[in-house]
Amino acid sequence: MIGLYWALSYLMGNFMTAYFVGKVYGVNLQAERSKNLGARNAGNVIGKAAFVWTFLGDALKGVLVVWLGYLWQLEEWVMIGGAAWVIAGHLFPIWLKFNGGKGVATFIGVGIALSPSLFLWMIIGTMLSLVFTRSLTLSMVGGFIFYIGAIIQAGKLEPYGLLIIAIMCMLIKHMSNIQESLKRRK
Hints:
By secondary structure, this protein is an all-alpha fold. It has one domain. Helices cover 75% and strands 0% of the residues. It is found in: Cell membrane. It catalyses: an acyl phosphate + sn-glycerol 3-phosphate = a 1-acyl-sn-glycero-3-phosphate + phosphate.
């Protein structure tokens, strides 16, 4: 059952909302601006409505994976693994030659669905970091630091291990944005 759930989670992550939103608007987002299939690029290229639809679609797939885990009464660590796999599917969709989005909206969906109290620390860390950095990209890094710190503080490092690996993959996908934001601060 675990393998089936994780495989299904990865495949659900492969649903790239931005790809289909782009099709509706007649735009290939993989050829525009950042070439990323995510809400931010959809919003920058197409507009606010495209951002909202992409964000909601990507977050929803994260929520659905966790909801299925609850429905099937899976253990916490299995659901957290599913959360990591849906993010991996978004980052590395097989049908797009492993070139997907950056995973933030999907992470928000799984983070809220898994543990709103832990996710609150992500929000607090992001907001505090935003005050000091004035950069959404850098404040996201601060949010992840707070989130992982909250996981450690709650004594949940072991069950959340795969999700932390997924977060590291997200940060690697964001590396060019992080470097650009750091250059602007100098």
